[in-house]
Amino acid sequence: MNNTGRNNLDSTLLIFLDGVGIGRADKSVNPFFKYPFSFLSGIFGKIPHLDDMYLTSDNKTFLFPSDACMGIGGLPQSGTGQTSIFCGVNAPEIIGRHFGPYPYSTLVPIINEKNIFKEFIELGLSVQFVNAYPQKFFDYVNSGRRRLNFTTLSCILSEIRLNNYEDLKIGQALSAEIDNSRWVNKLNYDLPIITPELAASRLLEITSKNHLTVFEYFFTDHIGHGRNVDTFEEILGILDKFLFFILKNINQDVSLVICSDHGNLEDISVKTHTLNPALTITAGKDAQKLMSKIKYLSDIKPAIMGRYQ
User: Fold this and answer.
1) What is d(CA 300, CA 81) in angstroms, rounded to the nearest whole number?
2) Of 222, 220, 263, 219, nearest to 76 (Cα)?
């Protein structure tokens, strides 16, 4: 095993993938069966589907479903799903419905009090949210507008510094698309376009320096909603190489959790979210214990916090 990011802390790496569920074994609707995905077939030997949702690799890495509906009718949504993951509460039950894409207003006090970043900080533990933001985002926030997704809102409420261009340039942060291509081609920043393997290596190195490291990837949800159709295969290929490198090189003294908030990408026959369970993977330290504790989205944060409390 590669020793990238050798760890001296009791570290957790949480990779959040927006809109990735476990769906049907049907290549006409499920991209995981149409295209090659090394992070699935190369690690687990096969692709998960609704009739085969629990996979393991050498009893060290585990893939399993997390219930995104949590007892509430309707299609799961990002605002309540992400609040459930990162705050450890059944957010749709609290407000009586699924809501998104942004957090429901009455959930903001709960987010302020219970988000995982804040709880790590209150325990005296180090936290880094590795996504970088371009200057236009900071201009947006400074203008007083605060229509923010969960992770960004949580960081601001918890007074966690958000990464910028300079952090990305020196390799201490990651772009949302992993390889910097959108920063270069759409935002005209002076950056190298990097390989997904290099991005993954940087993430593992950052992880080794913190108790909690979080990376958010949202293009999976965009694809599920019918966006980015011209670069569909390219985007998924970059993500696949990135996740494969992480899973192959994660140190066994680091806990890895890969999770999602609802189904979407696994069924491109519709442009809405799905009722399918959310894809979840645990690897590294305490992988089996984490897996055994997670049944619902709201179990993910307590399972992680249980390693430190």
Assistant:
1) 11
2) 263
pLDDT digits (tens, 9 = 90+) for 24-81: 999 999 999 999 999 999 999 999 999 999 999 999 999 999 999 999 999 999 999 9
Query: Which structural domains are found in the chain, ordered by start?
Result: 11-305 (3.40.720.10)
DSSP code at position 253: T
Q: What are phi and psi of 31, to 5 degrees?
A: -60, -25
| Confidence at 228, pLDDT banded by 50, 70, 90 | low
Are the beta carbons of 117 and 155 closer than 8 angstroms?
Answer: yes
> Which H or E run contains 65?
strand 61-66
Q: Which strands, in side-by-side order, build the sheet including 61-66?
A: 55-57, 61-66, 278-284, 254-260, 11-17, 212-217, 127-129
Contact predicate 199/185, CB 8 Å: no
SS3 234: helix
Segment 167-184, tens digit of pLDDT:
999 999 999 999 999 999
